[in-house]
Amino acid sequence: MTRSLPAGGSGPFTPDVVAAISRHMNDDHAADSLLICRALGGRPDATAARMTGMDATGIDFTVTVPAGAVPVRVPFAHRLTERGEVRREVVRLYRRACALLGVPARPAG
Prior knowledge:
Blueprint: H1 15-28, H2 30-40, E1 48-55, E2 58-65, E3 68-75, H3 84-101
Antiparallel strand pairs: 1-2, 2-3
């Protein structure tokens, strides 16, 4: 299920935008998603994570755990109002997850 703002809403998270962000996260940042879900999504037992959607208040994943696949939602620190905020917020989630797990974060850039 892909989560986005209601059709006709003024938010930037149309289904096309959510699909593009999901594709990028799943193709280029699967390991980062897994760290986020382990540390911030309450699933330390997760072995894989796949972004399935998002809206202005959080990001959705399906994670693989020993019992199978389960949904995980990780809330954003604040309501996002534009597409440019998504990257900053996901990077913030990644860095927080790394700190909580004791994993060195990649340098910015």
